[in-house]
Write a structure and sequence with these properties.
- The protein is of the alpha+beta class.
- The chain folds into 7 domains: about 100 residues; about 210 residues, TIM Barrel (Alpha-Beta Barrel); about 120 residues, Sandwich (Immunoglobulin-like); about 90 residues, Immunoglobulin-like, CATH 2.60.40; about 90 residues, Immunoglobulin-like (Sandwich); about 90 residues, Immunoglobulins (Immunoglobulin-like, Sandwich); about 90 residues, Immunoglobulin-like, CATH 2.60.40.10.
- The protein has 9 helices and 56 strands.
- Strands 2, 3, 4, 7, 8 and 9 form a 6-stranded parallel β-sheet that branches.
- Helix 2 links the parallel strand 2 and strand 3.
- The longest helix is centred in the last third of the chain and has 44 residues.
- It starts with 7 loop residues before the first helix and ends with a helix.
Length: about 950
């Protein structure tokens, strides 16, 4: 961190602070806060209504300290690792994003930052290119500081960029002034080495040079946790600075260390206000620039507002008030922004205290709303419309009185509710009637465990009354705050009690119709009232602990329960007979329990799948023995070593086939647990199904075959590379027929397993038809022959027989008929597909006969010669011989050839006379030729000389 020198701005700031402190010291002391953690605000004296006070708490929720987690540079590791961990723990932080890092491999994308914003995190500016701001000219400085925030707001929805972090913590007066004009606060770099790390004071000297504590590779989790403890204990604002989260990068914090530290921070949330950097700075600015004002429009309403010196609406941030109201404001309703808000009050020093949040321009309204409890007379027998009745069948014995005491504030009675018994109805409780003394007696809770005073709590009292008594009754109850209960009847006045009469007898022969019904039905024998009154029946259901689960009144002798009972528990059905004048018989009881057999267990599971995304589990099990609807449950776990990692918890009704919407991992072990449960909760044992998920690779595509050129009995297969990630190679199968492959598991031969995408087969016969199949094999050696790609192919014979060897020519002796002939011979061809020999003749060498017409075509493999008759003597001929197979293949180039010329022999020697004559003619011919040559030479010479002379004459 670079310290700036003290310039004129620092001196002016120091003088301003001293003046404010002096003004505060001279001003009146603000009212006490009853133990709240507050800071004194330099505002004028506040005059509150009598019995009221309010102080601004130092931190939101009146916590001891505050903590902000900040991250620099906008790194991908922060968005991918840190943000989800914090969100999971309910912690919101601040990410100072370097805009130029967005979209880079090490920087997070805008969608990632939008996700962080949607989870409540703050995005602040860390410039565009992370430069040393002190070195920039004004235009570049404007772009890095101001435009960076604008770019963040343009690319992220719902973001107002209000905070800034100096790159490397470097700034000067010019930089700070621009930041101060653009943002509401700025954070520096880590603590100076000479300064021990610790929290910032509750009111920092300068909101634009907040000093953080660095949490990086050199800091331990224990050390950072100790700082959290110190802040929670002593107060202040702890600002943490973090860079990379993971194994590498600048000042990295390991994910495990970050998770441990974040978890520790979350556990301190009762003492620490954990909030983003901008939110805390906004709170400080509002808190330190505001005072509290109160006014009372009437005796039961108090309005509270903030008087602030702030002029900007950007700091519309609520602060927490510690508010005191008079003790007689027992029940308080607080309205904020027109809506009631829940509060909890506490008593002390003759006042009531509570916490409330308030923002500038949004006042709080307190309304005194003391809630009196209520007393409602309760029907002793459901449907009887009578609040009291005889407790037994003897009209001269006990009677019971019931009331429902309730308090909207959930306050119990300060004293036990009382019932006033006036036996003769004269309003005087000092009489004695038939040996019974009139009195005021306490009532008792029907159920000691029922203390829910919002819904109501039943109280009762049983008393013995003389026969024929007509009495007057009054009830009274006061809650713990001294507020008296109010009832529409019997409160503040007397009401008449019942007239006594002889009740009907209890019913007989109670029968449970079905033991397998959670809402069972009963019937019984009708009761005859001794007074001839109509009889109704009061039915109550209890469990074995005598907790009432339901009550009914019916005129008939059959009843079907409305509520759901449980199987396997013992219940008591209690029935009383009632006449129309309130006479009630003693109870008649039936003890019963309901039975339910669990559904049969899952016996087996059929698992099938096409690919990793379409698994199917079919359960093999029976029907519920009692025909109840059945719920089937499945829990699926992925095995990670010896650890089971749950990937699915599913439930479905009746359908025994699970097709979960999930994708399996190939080459992975899974454990699936299945159970059946009927609608009443009876469950079968758990069936465990283990499976190793191993899908074969997808089918091979692009299978094609090419004949091997210039090669007998051979072809080559090609196919496209498989897209499987776990590819080991390919299985090539051959079917030596062209019929449809009805059983791919039974090829005529499995050629090989190879990683290549081609295969050469030399074990075929040209012209035969074969069918090939190729299927991909994964690294576990698994493959699915049903997914085999097949192709039908027949290798083509395109290889000519070998060249004919040892071609020879031999002149034959002439005879009187054939004076010119010779014999052309060669070695017999060894090609098994031999078809014919072709003889070619030409006047030039014959190494290539492509396109020529043969002189002669000879069938028969064993023929090795040809007698040539038709040629002219004295001419030279070239001959060659080729072998042709049955498919017409012929080698036409690079051939061996022979040549022959036949010059006939000289005629027989003549006689001497003839020879002399011939010599004379010969010499005469020679002499004639010489003479003609001399004459030609002389004529040419003369012509030349004449030409030269003529030329000289022209020159002269």
């Amino acid at each position: 961190m670079v310290r700036s020198s003290r310039g004129p701005y620092q001196i002016l700031a120091f003088m301003t602070i001293m003046a404010v402190l002096l003004f505060t010291a001279m001003g009146p002391i603000l009212p006490g806060d009853g133990g709240s953690r507050t800071v004194e605000v330099p505002t004028p004296t506040r005059i509150f209504p009598e019995g009221f006070s309010a102080d601004i708490c130092t931190w939101s929720g009146n916590r001891t300290g505050a903590l902000s987690l900040t991250y620099d540079d906008g790194l991908r590791s922060q968005a991918v690792n840190a943000s989800p961990i914090m969100t999971l723990l309910g912690i919101r932080g601040t990410f100072f994003v370097t805009v130029g890092n967005v979209g880079n491999p090490y920087g997070a994308s805008w969608p990632r930052w939008q996700e962080a914003v949607d989870n409540g995190h703050e995005i602040g500016s860390h410039t565009i290119t992370h430069p040393d701001l002190r070195t920039l000219d004004p235009d570049d400085l404007q772009e890095e500081v101001v435009m960076s925030g604008s770019m963040i707001e343009q690319n992220l929805s719902g973001v107002e960029c209000i905070s800034f972090s100096y790159p490397m913590g470097l700034f000067n007066t010019q930089v700070m002034d621009l930041v101060r004009d653009t943002y509401i606060a700025a954070r520096m770099d880590r603590h100076n080495i000479s300064s021990p790390p610790g929290p910032v004071p509750p009111s920092p000297p300068d909101m634009f040079s907040i000093v953080p504590v660095n949490f990086g590779s050199g800091e331990s989790v224990a050390g950072m946790n100790a700082l959290v403890d110190d802040t929670a204990r002593s107060g202040g604002w702890l600002v943490e600075m973090i860079h990379d989260v993971g194994d590498s990068g600048y000042e990295p914090v390991q994910i495990g260390d970050l998770t441990s530290h974040m978890t520790y921070i979350s556990s301190a949330s009762e003492d620490l206000w954990i909030a983003p950097f901008g939110e805390v700075t906004s709170y400080i600015r509002v808190r330190d620039a505001s005072g509290v004002e109160m006014s009372m429009p009437n005796d039961e309403v108090c309005d509270i507002s903030l008087d602030t010196s702030l002029e900007t609406a950007d700091l519309d941030v609520p602060v927490t008030l510690n508010i005191s109201v008079p003790a007689d404001w027992v029940d308080l309703v607080v309205y904020y922004q027109g809506k009631p808000t829940n509060i909890t009050t506490s008593r002390g020093d003759g006042h009531r205290w509570f916490m409330g949040d308030i923002a500038p321009g949004h006042p709080l309204r307190l309304v005194k709303a003391n809630r009196h409890p209520s007393i409602e007379l309760h029907e002793a027998v459901q449907g009887s419309k009578l609040p009291f009745h005889p407790a037994s069948g003897n009209s001269s014995e006990s009677y019971s009185f019931f009331l429902n005491y309730s308090s909207g504030a959930n306050r119990g009675p300060g004293d036990i509710p009382m019932v006033w018994l006036d036996l003769n109805g004269d309003g005087d409780l000092n009489d004695i009637l038939n040996g019974v003394e009139e009195s005021r007696v306490e009532m008792f809770m029907s159920d000691p465990l029922d203390r829910n005073y919002i819904d109501g709590c039943i109280y009762h009292r049983s008393v013995d009354l003389p026969p024929g008594t007509r009495l007057r009754i009054r009830f009274s109850a006061v809650d713990t705050e001294g507020l008296e209960g109010i009832s529409t009847t019997g409160m503040g006045s007397w009401m008449d009690g019942p007239s006594l009469n002889d009740p009907p007898p209890a019913p007989e022969h109670i029968v449970l119709i079905s033991h397998h019904d959670t809402s069972p039905s009963f019937n019984w024998t009708a009761s005859i009232d001794p007074d001839g009154d109509d009889v109704t029946y009061a039915v109550r259901i209890f469990d074995i602990g005598m907790t009432e689960t339901g009550s009914y009144v019916t005129e008939g002798t059959e009843l079907s329960l409305h509520e759901e009972l449980e199987f396997g528990r013992e219940y008591i059905l209690q029935i009383r007979s009632m006449d129309g004048r309130g006479g009630v018989s003693g109870p008649r009881e039936l003890h019963f329990n309901l039975t339910n057999e669990p559904p049969p267990p899952v016996m087996a599971v059929i698992f099938s799948t096409i690919d990793t995304s379409k698994p199917s589990f079919e359960l093999l099990t029976g029907d519920d023995p009692e025909g109840d609807p059945v719920i089937y449950r499945m829990s699926l776990f992925r095995m990670d070593g010896d650890l089971e990692v749950k990937v699915l918890e599913a439930m479905q009704w009746s359908n025994r086939t699970f097709i979960p919407a999930l994708r399996f991992s190939d080459h992975t072990a899974y454990i699936a647990r299945f159970s059946a449960e009927d609608v009443y909760g009876a469950a079968s044992p758990v069936y465990v199904h283990e499976l190793y998920f191993n899908l074969p690779p997808p089918p091979v595509t692009g299978l094609r075959a090419v004949d091997l050129e210039n090669r007998e009995n051979g072809l080559i297969l090609f196919w496209d590379m498989s897209t499987a990630d776990d590819l080991e190679g390919y299985l090539i199968c051959r079917f030596d027929h062209d019929n449809a492959v009805t059983d791919p598991a039974s090829p005529d031969s499995i050629i090989n397993v190879s990683g290549s995408i081609s295969h050469i087969d030399l074990n075929v016969t040209d012209g035969e038809i074969y069918r090939y199949g190729v299927v991909a094999v994964d690294m576990d050696g698994s493959f699915d022959l049903d997914m085999m790609e097949t192709i039908s192919v027949s290798p083509v014979d395109d290889v000519p027989p070998g060249r004919v060897l040892n071609i020879r020519v031999e002149l034959l002796e002439p005879d009187e008929f054939l004076p010119h002939r010779f014999l052309l011979s060669w070695n017999i061809s060894s090609d098994t597909r031999f078809g014919e020999y072709r003889i070619y003749r030409s006047g030039s060498p014959l190494q290539d006969v492509d396109g020529r017409q043969p002189l002669k075509v000879i069938d028969g493999r064993d023929t090795d010669s040809y007698e040539e008759l038709g040629f002219e003597p004295g001419l030279r001929y070239f001959y060659t011989v080729t072998a042709v197979d049955i498919h017409g293949n012929e080698e036409t180039t690079m051939l061996s050839f022979v040549d022959i010329i036949h010059i006939p022999e000289a005629p027989p020697t003549p006689d001497p006379g003839r020879e002399k004559e011939d010599n004379t003619i010969f010499y005469l011919g020679i002499a004639s030729v010489v003479l003609l040559a001399l004459m030609g030479a002389i004529s040419y010479t003369t012509f030349i000389l004449q030409g030269k002379r003529s030329g000289h004459g022209d020159e002269e």
